[in-house]
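Lecture 7 notes: from sequence to structure.
We start with the chain below.
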Amino acid sequence: MTSTTDQTAAPGAAPRTELTPGARFRRIGGGLSLLASGTLVFGSLLMIPYQNQTHAEYLQTGVDHTSNILWAAVPLHYGYLLLLPAALTLVHLARRGARKTSLAAMVLSGLGAGLSGIVVVDYYDVALANSLPADEALRIFELAGSYGQGALIAAPSMIGLAIGTNLAVFAAWRARAIPLLPLLLSVVGWLVFFFFSGDAWLPSVGTGLMALGLAWAGVIVLTMRDEVWDRI
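Predicted structure tokens for the same chain:
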């Protein structure tokens, strides 16, 4: 049998001290994505104080708050996009302590990234509400929503985003990389966001809690030493 010349595999060899190329960049980028993703989503919802218990109320929002919606879609798009690298950063923290959970979180978060593209539909809804009489705009809006194929795109993205993000936070907590409170803030925030989505302000409260939980994890990553990040 040929003896190995790889000193990193030899018993009693000194631990590796050099950093993996790009380790600091990934740590800082991941930490910033944790800080920015939830904050952008939270800020976007703050821009639109609307009631949307019914489709008619939703379309009326497009008339009453046209400029707000058009601008709010921009940070929402980038916030949703950044949730993917944010989740992958948490997956990195959990990859040794919660391997299977972090793998599931990575797959679901990847599906959730598709939600950022769906945001562009807001512009069509605003144009519809402002270009046609209310009854005609409502008829077309409901017709478009009746196409079941759309759910095959939207549902996996929404479910993947919410579950994938929270599963990544859970995996990082399970691996003892972050404390319990950021996990609780994220889970409660998403629950409030989804179950009270028709309220004027509760979705903003929910995303605010979620943003706080992710930002907490982001601060942990940003204050972590490069050597610790690299060997996790």
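Points to note: Confidence is low (pLDDT under 50) at residues 1-14. Residues 23-231 form one domain.
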